[in-house]
Design a protein that fits this description.
heterodimer, A: alpha+beta, Alpha-Beta Plaits, two-stranded antiparallel ribbon, two-stranded antiparallel sheet, B: alpha+beta, Jelly Rolls, 4-stranded antiparallel β-sheet, 11 strands, 23% strand, elongated
């Protein structure tokens, strides 16, 4: 089940490259112990750039589809 | 400034070259930094330098007259951009933009040509890199030309929109790309197009279907 509040990090897939940190506009992502961690989600605009640049598919930004 | 030898060793352009050769080649590079959103190359402009991304991410894109963006590739550390204009001498076929703070290592066209003349192995490496680039672009052209991706995305949205009572399905753009049999970049463009048509609204973590009938009509276009 997807978390509804923040991008989802699969720490098993994360290779610690840090590219998501460089593209994150709101500073929500940090590298801790070579693994990406989310520290702040209040300002997350759900731009999905972190998902786009992640080569290993460790970050997902799911959309809820409502009618 | 000279770039780290270890960096050169990791990039496909210089695979198989001896350390002593790389040690002289690295002195030809210069460093360039850019901030998020900075344009690093503009479509139509001449290009005199080839760039390798040292850190950060660069997107290579085309922009339509209406301002719609199509990402051609995401350039990650160790990968290059500006290859095409540097090698064929023509103008840039696409623009390049920093997606965040980036550090680049650049080499002037003349220095690159001299280096390739000295090291034939490099020419083979460049061929392989460019061939891989052609494969990726052909795949993107196929997606954009032959697949009615926008119709498929419309169908995916209709089929996965939950009613207000039960649990609502959630999909990433990668999920939708996998279902539609296309690239994530094409799904992103399709979602923007559907929003421009007034069929959906993109919100934080939500895709709101505004006009089901419009989605059905888009889906029905062969």
């Amino acid at each position: 089940m997807y978390d509804k509040l923040m991008p989802i990090i699969d720490t098993d897939k994360c290779n610690g490259c840090g590219l998501c940190v460089t593209v994150c506009r709101c500073g929500a992502l940090v590298l801790e112990g070579n693994v990406i961690t989310i520290i702040e989600v209040v300002d997350c605009g759900w731009c999905t750039q972190c998902e786009l640049v992640c080569e290993t598919g460790a970050i997902t930004c799911p959309f809820e589809i409502v009618s | 400034m000279a770039i780290p030898l270890d960096f050169l060793k990791r990039i496909p352009y210089f695979a198989g070259l001896q350390d002593r050769d790389l040690a002289s080649i690295k002195n030809l590079f210069f460093e360039k930094t850019a901030e998020r959103g900075e344009m690093l190359a503009l479509e139509g402009d001449p290009a005199e330098e080839l760039y390798f991304v040292a850190s950060g991410v660069v997107k290579v894109l085309k922009t339509s007259p209406e301002g719609r963006e199509q990402i051609l590739s995401i350039v990650r550390p160790g990968e290059s951009f500006n290859d095409v204009p540097v090698f064929d001498g023509g103008p840039n076929h696409a623009s390049a933009q920093a997606m965040g703070p980036v550090v680049l290592y650049g080499i002037h066209k003349a220095d690159l040509e001299t280096t390739i003349a000295k090291h034939p192995r490099l020419a083979l490496n460049v061929s392989m890199v460019l061939a891989s680039r052609v494969r990726n672009l052909v795949s993107l052209v196929e997606d954009l030309s032959f697949k009615q991706v926008i119709g498929r995305v419309a169908r995916i949205l209709l089929e996965n929109s939950g009613d207000r009572s039960g649990p609502r399905p959630q999909l990433t753009q990668q999920d939708m790309a996998a279902i539609a049999g296309t690239a994530r970049e094409v799904v992103g463009r399709s979602l923007k197009a559907l929003e421009e048509k007034g069929a959906i609204r993109l919100e934080h973590r939500r895709i709101v279907i505004k006009d089901k009938e419009a989605l059905r009509q888009i889906m029905a276009v062969p």
